[in-house]
Amino acid sequence: MKTSIKTLSLILLAIIFISPGDADSMEFSRQKTVKLDTCSIWSVPVFDGNNLVVSCEGNGRLYAMKYDQDLNLVKSAKTVGSSSDFESADYISDHKHVFQNGYHYIVFSCRGSGSGGELVLIKLDTNLKRVGKVNVVTNSSPTNDMFLVGDGSRIYVGKYSPETGGHKVFIFSEGLEQVGEEVAIGGFDQRYGDLGHSNGAVALYDSGTFYLVAPNTLSPGDGNYFYLLKFDTDWQPISRRETIYEDQGDLGIVSGLVEDPGGRFYILNFVTRASGNREVVGPINAAVYDSNWNLISSDEILDGDLQRPHSVLVDDHLYIGYDREKNGYSAYLTKFRLSYDESEFSTSSQGQDNENGATGVSQGQQHENGPTQGGNDAGIGQPTLDPSKITLRITLETPPQSEGSQSSLNDQHGQGIETDRGSVIPKISLAFSGYDTATPLADWWFVVLAPDGFLQLNVSNWNWEFIGDDPTKLAPSVQYVLVPLEEVQLPEFKFIMSGNYYFFFGLDAPDSALNQEIIYSLMVKNVE
């Protein structure tokens, strides 16, 4: 176990915490805004190599128009879709738009009710002339808030599927012929656990991977998280669901996602709820991530009762289409200039595995001698975390409903626990003595190293959340003074994959460069 603790300590010492807003890593300078007079909602811009082409909705119709890069109108609004495209002749409700290999692809829906709802995909040339159409679904509600993405050769339509806990992806050739059967994504996966997510999502393709960013819900006041899900070219999951943004109760639709052509950063555009507003409308935000999806900064860049932001990046300019709710709806397009320090956005690689293949943490077992201490530097004005005064402990129990479950799986011999149980309940204990008047403030760590990466306890929603295989994404679960704990039960942990698991319960003094960590760990091995 000594090797395991030492290695984990080195990882923790290398972590640098960057909170959103700590530095102006990227500035968004607003340059110009135009109102789309013909349209009222759903302003979706794309770039055709020369001009910005904006699709939007109004008067029950779908329009497209062209602007140059300075937002001067080049081609007036042209009707490209209407209620006549639907068997039910219902009004258009929501659409998405991509440009690929010289053609525009737009998917749009009608409202429908009950078992109704239709979804249509059309293809336009660069002159906005329709050259193809296909019905994606009919009589299959809901069809709104879809996503659309291309991979350079095919087009993928994501239709929300609440019954499966995610989306169904329909695959089309560039000739609008459906390729194979639709693929259900989301719900529970045997290998990667809960992949559930809601509609109001956005997808991006890069180098053999589809990245889907989706909210946990679009229900007003309940939007707490944005999830990142990754899929291969067949839309099979390749990792666990990650929480990449959190704002309790205030998150709405996340519909804008762009990637820097050099692969240095991603920009996510979404809406947060305005104060006192029942619906999720409010300011538009820009969250900036590095190439490994670490959050660098998050800022409000457009204020007002706004909704449905869609974005496109052209050189160092970000164009955002959106609509505003004030005495009815109005659609807009705004141009921003990006300013940033190149050195902060250099392309970085994912965490490298060590020779044992465990992302920097070698295999080990329970430490027989209790807590291990790091350096002796204390935070200024802060009582020292003295390992001789602190006792940490982890025990693991099988859930009571498990047939033949043991009362405890705690191993006292340093060889690790062997189990094929489906889940365990971690319990932690903390005792200390000898502090006079001031009880030390500490960073509390609850971490599990699984065969495919790290999971960490999110105390705000009391769930284990997958962090990934990059240890620099780990952060303290909570910062709090020391309090005695006697077998406090943590959330049930499910063994989804076979292999070895390491449960870490750690403390360290804040503001001390993580030089005072006290770590206790326990291994569960050979989970089948």
Mean pLDDT, all residues: 82
* End-to-end distance: 22 Å
Q: Write down the Rg.
A: 26 Å
Report the biggest beta sheet as strand number plus sense, adding barrel if it closes. Answer: 8 strands, mixed
Shape: elongated
* DSSP summary, beta strand count: 37
Please bin the fraction of helical residues: under 10%
Q: Which blocks of ≥5 consecutive residues have pLDDT under 50? A: 1-23, 348-381, 402-406
- Helix-and-strand structural type: mainly beta
Strand content: over 45%
Number of helices: 1
Characterize the structure shown.
There is one protein chain. This protein is mainly beta. Helix content is 2%, strand content 51%. It has one helix spanning 2-13; strands at residues 26-36, 41-47, 52-58, 61-67, 73-81, 92-100, 103-110, 118-124, 130-137, 147-150, 154-161, 166-173, 183-186, 188-189, 193-194, 202-206, 209-215, 225-231, 242-246, 251-259, 265-272, 282-290, 295-314, 317-325, 329-340, 372-373, 390-397, 417-418, 423-432, 441-450, 453-458, 463-468, 478-481, 485-489, 493-494, 499-508, 518-527. The strands form 8 sheets. Strands 26, 28, 30, 31, 32, 33, 36 and 37 form an 8-stranded mixed β-sheet that branches. A 7-stranded antiparallel β-sheet has the order 1-25-24-23-22-21-20, with no helix packed on it. Strands 2-3-4-5 form a 4-stranded antiparallel β-sheet, with no helix packed on it. The protein is elongated and about 75 Å long. The two termini are 22 Å apart. The model is unreliable at 1-23, 348-381 and 402-406 (pLDDT under 50).
